[in-house]
From TrEMBL:
It comes from Rhodococcus cerastii. This is Sigma factor-like helix-turn-helix DNA-binding protein.
């Protein structure tokens, strides 16, 4: 076509019909392919024009596989860059791989040749034909498009005459239908293609239509003239010798290939000879695959069904012949086609084009383009990148993404779940509401600790704690929760240095899951003071109101203090523990301060940041020797600022022994009596009456010690006389009463 034709305005001058642009729509002479082909071409950009182009593409694929592109589209201009005709990326890649750069490179190619190219399916061919047809139409000049010389030679030959029984029946029914439709003026109706049979049609016409629709493949094909894929492969294998078949089964079709050395020993030949046999056997079957149209079309159909990835179960349901076992070798037909064609890979129940690894990589690349800032994407959007749509496509997408290691939750895929931080961020992004640490880990597919997640979230700038244990994404802009004390300070600051307790409770408890009693307790302790229902910051340091000797479970030793605690699960998990305020006095720490005590296992923290002082984790002290959960132990603070944890001595049932165990008295007391030991542990003089010792333990809340002292009172009173008498000091009233 010369340059004047190329430069002509498409559609200029007289109007042209579809058959003018695509002459083969009217061949053979005297018979139109479609009734609309003689109508004028619709205007550019209309839906009708695009619909006709797609129908032309469909007709070309159905009936003109042996035609060249030039014969189908005689108006296609020469020298045009194929990159400019709007091909999809996949189609463009296909042309690039096969050396097609301009329209001159494609004009001489038959459609069947394009379909035979590696990794080319029907969808890609349809796109290529549509774009070529559209380009041809855009450059067609009225009166200058002719049938390409010799194109009639490409008209496919008629199929062989089929058996007369079903053929004559369907011919009669088709003739009956056509005559009736013409007689009522419905010659343009296409009932056989779209099922548009008028409801008012006569019964005998409807019966004829039903007979045509009920024709089955088995009515046309016979077992003598038709074979399944498995039988075709079996017939080809039957022409090989036993060694070739054995090599194919053991090396090509096996899940794990047998070594050539092993096969050589089996057949008493060298390893090199077995390699030659394998190469030849592969070549023979490869030639069969490339030359046998049924096998080749089956592979193309298989690839077309897969798209990028699909489960083997789905494929076998759609193409049952692939699942049939090949007689003689007991492997499914798909295994033979997969290993020989290499157009598809089957692994772990998945079919992938061209292989599983590349599709996994493509899946990851696609997900990167559609996820939000937290790695979350919609399942349908993910499936669109895999060529999966519809309900069955969602099932395939969900299963494939799970196979690739992604987390699928509801209708979304989570791509970043390797760390608890990323996983939590994805869940929050998905649910769009604040969640507790436990609620987050409950949604993890693998068990995780809520406490470890809290620690991780606290250090991650993407999160805000918006309640005592509720976490949100920082970008949501929700008010940040720190602790009750900070919230009180914030309210005092907002209200010029003081705020009513009632207003404080209403403000904090209304926004956060904090009880009124907790707010009141914090507002009444350091660093706050409360007067007449008004809370303000206190002046000076808070006082330690209870002395150590008055504190329950806190015992004095010769060189320090021992505080008895019950070991809990939290201790073993590494959590800190609350201490009485008297500990702050012993350690001489003010509110807001932390000290580090020395120990055999390293520094031990003690602080006073909240309402009560606290000890840091003592977990390492509980390991050797093991101190079980639910047992008692002493937290020992020595006068030299050293720290230790001592398990309580085992209780024996003897009151005096058990009393000494509960107060942490050493077994070797250097001659000190039990009475003196229990008295000095709470700051009493060694010569006070037993009744006073029992009363003091009762008053400080150590009822367990008091009960044991009552049981052993007689023994305690029989111990040696007090030092008060031996020094000539007059007895007290209590001493006199004890003697009465």
């Amino acid at each position: 076509m010369d340059n004047d034709v190329l430069d002509a305005e498409p559609g200029a001058g007289e109007s042209q019909s579809w058959v003018d642009v695509f002459p083969w729509l009217g061949q053979p002479p005297g018979r139109l392919e479609t009734a609309w082909s003689v109508r004028p071409v619709e205007e550019e950009g209309t839906d009708a024009r695009e619909e006709r182009l797609r129908e032309i593409s469909s007709l070309a694929m159905k009936k003109q596989w042996s035609w060249t592109v030039g014969a189908l589209f005689p108006a296609l201009p020469s020298g045009l860059d194929v990159a400019s005709i709007g091909l999809t990326p996949r189609a463009a890649n296909v042309f690039a791989r096969n050396g097609v750069v301009t329209t001159d490179d494609v004009r001489g190619l038959e459609l069947s040749t394009i379909l035979d190219w590696r990794n080319v399916g029907l969808t890609t061919v349809a796109d290529i034909i549509f774009r070529l047809a559209d380009t041809s139409l855009a450059h067609a000049v009225p009166g200058q498009v002719d049938v390409v010389p010799g194109s009639t030679a490409h008209i496919p030959p008629q199929v062989e005459q089929l058996p007369s029984g079903w053929a004559s029946s369907i011919t009669n029914d088709l003739t009956l239908l056509s005559r009736w439709f013409y007689s009522v003026g419905l010659s343009d109706l296409e009932p056989l293609r779209n099922g548009a049979m008028p409801s008012w049609a006569p019964e005998w016409i409807i019966d004829a239509y039903r007979r045509i629709q009920s024709i089955r493949v088995s009515d046309i094909a016979s077992s003598q003239t038709s074979r399944t894929l498995a039988s075709i492969i079996s017939d080809e294998l039957a022409q090989m010798d036993d060694r070739s078949i054995a090599v194919l089964c053991s090396r090509v079709f096996a899940d794990e290939a047998e070594t050539l050395d092993s096969l050589g020993r089996r057949f008493a030949v060298t390893r090199e000879r077995m390699r030659q046999i394998e190469v030849k056997a592969r070549s023979i079957l490869g030639d069969v695959l490339s030359e046998n149209e049924l096998l080749k079309d089956s592979v193309n159909a298989w690839v077309g069904l897969i798209g990028l990835v699909r489960s083997m179960d789905d494929i076998v349901q759609l193409l049952p012949a692939l699942g049939e076992s090949v007689p003689g070798i007991n492997v499914p037909a798909w295994r033979v086609l997969e290993r020989l064609s290499r157009a598809v890979e089957v692994r772990d129940g998945w079919c992938a084009v061209p292989d599983v690894a590349s599709v996994r990589e493509a899946t990851g690349s696609h997900l990167v383009t559609i996820v939000d800032d937290y790695g979350v994407a919609g399942l349908q959007a993910a499936g669109a990148g895999l060529g999966c749509d519809g309900e069955s496509g969602d099932v395939t997408t969900r299963a494939w993404l799970t196979y690739c290691g992604y987390v699928v939750e509801d209708e979304y895929v989570l791509t970043r779940t390797s760390s608890v931080n990323d996983y939590a961020a994805a869940i929050l992004s998905l649910h769009r509401e604040a969640l507790s640490a436990q609620e987050l880990v409950d949604r993890f597919i693998h068990p995780r600790s809520a406490s470890s997640l809290r620690n991780a979230l606290a250090l991650d700038s993407r999160f805000n704690r918006v309640d005592r244990d509720l976490w949100a994404l920082r970008e949501w802009g929700l008010q940040k929760y720190t602790n009750i004390r900070s919230l009180i300070i914030e309210q005092i600051s907002k209200n010029n240095g003081q705020v009513k307790l009632a207003d404080l409770i209403h403000e904090i408890s209304g926004k956060f899951s904090v009880s009124a009693s907790s707010v009141s307790a914090y507002a009444s302790s350091a660093p706050f003071e409360q007067r007449a229902g008004v809370v303000r910051l206190a002046e000076g340091d808070p006082e330690v109101r209870k002395r150590p000797h008055e504190t329950r479970r806190l015992m004095r030793r010769d060189n320090g203090w021992a505080y008895r605690v019950v070991i809990t699960k939290e201790h073993h998990r590494g959590s800190g523990s609350v201490a009485p305020r008297a500990i702050a006095g012993i350690l001489d720490i003010a509110h807001g301060e932390t000290v580090q005590l020395s120990s055999r296992l390293g520094p031990q923290a003690a602080s006073w940041m909240g309402i009560q002082p606290t000890f840091g984790t003592i977990r390492r002290f509980l390991l050797e020797p093991h101190v079980a959960e639910g047992t008692d132990a002493f937290l020992v603070i020595n006068d030299d600022a050293s720290f230790n944890v001592e398990p309580i001595k085992k209780l024996t049932g003897d009151p005096l022994s058990d009393v000494l165990a509960l107060i942490g008295s050493p077994e070797d007391r250097n001659g000190i009596s039990v009475r003196t030991a229990v008295a000095s542990a709470i700051g009493l003089a060694p010569d006070v009456p037993v009744s006073s010792i029992i009363g003091a333990y009762t008053d400080r809340g150590d009822s367990d010690v008091a009960e044991l002292l009552l049981k052993s009172r007689d023994c305690l009173e029989l111990e040696p006389s007090t030092t008060r008498r031996s020094e000539g000091i007059p007895p007290s009233v209590d001493d006199i009463l004890d003697l009465l």
